[in-house]
């Protein structure tokens, strides 16, 4: 395992408990804001000291509360990209990069810096101050500065959230390229499931200070095992549920009995993604008769909120998303027959 | 016109300012890191000279440095050094009175320092000494500069505690402020006025220089 973390930290009323093993790849930490993602990275970097636990990178122990190991941030050889990039405002771009190579021979340092400037397309900006650069340029300088120190792992704290949407896509493409060429373990913190999907191979989901285990990103989107993971993956429809027999589940909030594959006895919730629900003409298996509540036109699709027989309370409603043509071609009726295909149902703990 | 008070005032202010610069920054840096209760308590003690009347400060100084007091007597017997009624006695007074100005402005500047800058510098492997002198100090330079100038101005204008611990001996302990008082008391109004104008001119030049420095800096940063 490339990075192994199992720590606890109390900050006021906030209690962080996270444990995961990230393999040698791009690993995501996904969670809503304020769930402890940034604190986790800072603990690994050694800037914040955890109350208890163990941190290991490539077999090297960076922190262990029982063995009283607490390496200084300078000794950890861990690169951390801050959300605001944390460039030194009193130095030029070149000064910022040279600072990372302090103590090394001046000539080789200059050569390495100009190599980095070329690689990150920062030529011509050497004499600029950070305040004179665009957000994307600042991030490139910050990344170049980190790579000059040859860190063992790379940690990125919401690398794209400070950029406007126009710059974000371009920067994300550059970032994807960089992560590929870096090769070592990368921890990427974000609240965006899209970024996780596109940039990461494995992921740990953090929910209100709790985070356990690492799973492949595919699993998070196709077969999440817990409700919090399912919700973070973007699923909006869920209901409390109990298994009836080998192939049937009662969805308590939706007021329906559904057919599905092999429900486990410890399941508590059932969920389905909005675009997996289909519109039918007549009742049938897994079809729930619903009353339309609200129709919203999205950019390329139509979103319909519908009340199930379970009522109109928040999670008794179903949200469906379908193409504009399909919605326009539907038969005008009081009742919407919504089909929840068995293969699309997710059974959760 | 004897220019000794000008020379004496400037050297006292310069020496005090230099001492206060380092001591003030030292305390500002370490007090900012202390736990809250201790920080509040120490903060009160360190700021006290700012609100106490200078004569009270002078009284305390005499209690410590007076020739018949413990520390003063020990200095006299061990090193044959007199701590009161000599020109450098005024340095003690100026340091104590100007210290809170440096300490408070520097602490305010340090507390406004973005902690992410320190953290990122540490993860880049930079030593804490380097971070302090090359990143934090330049970042906080506005506050530090303001504190230094205020301390210099305060040290230059110190009268109360100085008159108690250094007194007024023409050509030996006379400063601009004590000279003005002495001349006015002896009805030498014309000469007193000249010294007043000298004092105003120095303060004017110092403040002007700071303003110009700040402006140039802002232009350079853009």
Molecular structure report:
Chain A has 349 residues and is α+β, with helices and mostly antiparallel strands. In chain A, 39% of the residues are buried. With 222 residues, chain B is an all-alpha fold. Chain B has one domain: MetI-like fold (Orthogonal Bundle), CATH 1.10.3720. In chain B, helix 3 crosses helix 5, helix 5 packs antiparallel against helix 8 and helix 6 runs antiparallel to helix 7.
Give the key terms.
heterodimer; A: 349 residues; alpha+beta; 12-stranded mixed β-sheet; 5-stranded antiparallel β-sheet; 10 helices; B: 222 residues; mainly alpha; MetI-like fold; 0% strand; globular
Topology (SSEs and partners):
The complex is a heterodimer of chains A (349) and B (222).
Chain A lengths: L2 E9 L2 E9 L3 E5 L6 H9 L6 E6 L2 E5 L4 E2 L2 H4 L1 E4 L11 H8 L5 H14 L15 H14 L4 E5 L7 H18 L2 E6 L2 H7 L2 E6 L2 E3 L2 E2 H6 L4 H6 L4 E7 L4 E4 L4 E4 L9 E4 L5 E3 L6 E11 L3 E7 L9 E7 H5 L7 E4 L6 E3 L1
Parallel strand pairs in A: 2-11, 3-9, 3-10, 7-8, 8-9
Antiparallel strand pairs in A: 1-2, 1-4, 4-5, 5-6, 10-11, 10-12, 13-14, 13-16, 14-15, 16-22, 17-21, 18-19, 18-21, 19-20
Chain B lengths: L3 H28 L4 H16 L2 H12 L4 H10 L9 H23 L3 H9 L4 H12 L1 H17 L2 H6 L10 H10 L3 H33 L1
Helix pairs in contact in B: 1-5, 1-8, 2-5, 3-5, 5-8, 6-7, 8-11, 10-11
Number of strands of chain A: 22
Average pLDDT rating of chain B: 90
Number of helices of chain A: 10
Give the second-level CATH assignment, the architecture of chain B.
Answer: Orthogonal Bundle
- Provide the structure class of chain B: mainly alpha
What is the domain total for the residues of chain B? 1
State the largest interface: A-B, 29 and 19 residues
User: What structural class do the secondary elements of chain A suggest?
Assistant: alpha+beta
Query: How is the biggest beta sheet of chain B arranged?
Result: none
Main sheet makeup of chain A: 12 strands, mixed
First CA to last CA of chain A: what distance?
Answer: 27 Å
CATH topology of chain B: MetI-like fold
Q: For the CA atoms, what is the radius of gyration of chain A? A: 25 Å
Strand content of chain B: under 5%
Tally of helical segments of chain B: 11
Estimate the global geometry of chain B from the Cα principal axes.
globular
Task: Tell me the strand percentage band of chain A.
Answer: 25-35%
Please state the oligomeric state of the protein chains shown: heterodimer
The low-confidence runs of chain B, each spanning 5 or more residues with pLDDT under 50, are none
Distance between the termini of chain B: 48 Å
């Amino acid at each position: 395992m490339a990075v192994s973390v199992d720590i606890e930290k109390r900050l006021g009323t906030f209690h962080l408990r996270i444990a995961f093993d990230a393999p040698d790849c791009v690993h995501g930490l996904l969670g809503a804001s304020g769930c402890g993602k940034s604190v986790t990275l800072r603990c690994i970097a050694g800037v914040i000291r955890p109350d208890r636990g163990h941190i290991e990178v490539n077999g090297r122990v960076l922190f262990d509360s029982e063995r009283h190991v607490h390496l200084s941030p300078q000794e950890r050889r861990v690169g951390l990209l801050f959300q605001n990039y944390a460039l030194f405002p009193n130095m030029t771009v070149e000064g910022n990069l040279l600072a990372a190579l302090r103590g090394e021979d001046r000539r080789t340092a200059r050569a390495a810096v100009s190599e980095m400037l070329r690689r990150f397309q920062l030529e011509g900006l050497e004499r600029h101050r950070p305040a004179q650069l665009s957000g994307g340029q600042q991030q490139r300088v910050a990344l170049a500065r980190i790579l000059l120190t040859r860190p063992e792992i790379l940690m990125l704290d919401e690398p794209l959230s400070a950029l406007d949407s126009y710059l974000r896509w371009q920067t994300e493409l550059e970032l994807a390229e960089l992560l590929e060429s870096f090769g070592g373990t990368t921890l990427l913190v974000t609240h965006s499931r899209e970024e996780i999907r596109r940039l990461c191979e494995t992921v740990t989901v953090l929910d209100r200070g709790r985070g356990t285990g690492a799973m492949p990103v595919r699993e998070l989107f196709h077969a999440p095992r817990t409700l919090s993971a399912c919700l973070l993956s973007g699923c909006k429809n869920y209901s409390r549920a109990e298994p009836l027999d080998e192939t049937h589940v009662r969805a308590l909030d939706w007021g329906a009995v559904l057919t599905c594959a092999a429900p486990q006895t410890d399941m508590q919730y059932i969920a389905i993604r909005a675009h997996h629900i289909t519109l039918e003409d007549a009742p049938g298996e897994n079809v729930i008769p619903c009353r339309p509540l609200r129709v919203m036109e999205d950019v390329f699709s139509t979103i319909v909120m519908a009340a199930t027989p379970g009522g109109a309370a928040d999670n008794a409603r179903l949200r469906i998303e379908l193409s504009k043509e399909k919605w326009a071609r539907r038969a005008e009726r009081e009742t919407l027959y919504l089909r929840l295909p068995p293969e699309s149902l997710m059974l959760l703990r | 016109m004897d220019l000794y008070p000008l020379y004496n005032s400037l050297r006292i202010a310069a020496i005090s300012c230099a001492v206060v610069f380092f001591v003030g920054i030292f305390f500002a840096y370490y007090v900012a890191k202390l736990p809250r209760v201790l920080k509040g308590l120490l903060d009160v003690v360190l700021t006290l000279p700012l609100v106490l009347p200078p004569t009270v400060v002078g009284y305390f100084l005499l209690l410590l440095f007076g020739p018949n007091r413990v520390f003063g007597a020990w200095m006299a017997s061990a090193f044959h050094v007199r701590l009161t009624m000599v020109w450098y006695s005024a340095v003690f007074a100026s340091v104590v009175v100007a210290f809170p100005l440096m300490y408070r402005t520097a602490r305010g500047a340090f507390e406004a320092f973005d902690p992410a800058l320190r953290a990122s510098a540490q993860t880049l492997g930079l030593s804490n000494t380097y971070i302090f002198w090359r990143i934090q100090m330049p970042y906080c330079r506005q506050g530090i500069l303001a504190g230094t100038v205020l301390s210099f101005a305060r040290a230059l204008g110190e009268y109360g505690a100085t008159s108690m611990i250094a007194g007024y001996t023409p050509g030996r302990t006379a400063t601009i402020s004590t000279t003005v008082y002495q001349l006015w008391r002896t009805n030498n109004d014309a000469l007193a006025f000249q010294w007043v104008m000298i004092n105003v001119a120095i303060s004017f030049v110092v403040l002007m220089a700071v303003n110009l420095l700040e402006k140039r800096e802002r232009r350079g940063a853009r």
